[in-house]
Amino acid sequence: MGLLCSDYFAHSPTVPLNKIVANVNIDGAPGLLFPMKDVVAMGAEHSSIEKDVESAAREIGYALIPDPMPEETGFIRSDEYSFVLQGVPAVYIDDGISSTDPKIDGFAFEKKWMVTRYHTPLDNMDQPLDYESGAKAAGLNFLAGYEIAQQNQPPEWNHGDFFGTKFAQTR
Question: 62 vs 39, 58, 121, CA distance in Å?
Answer without folding.
Answer: 7, 6, 31
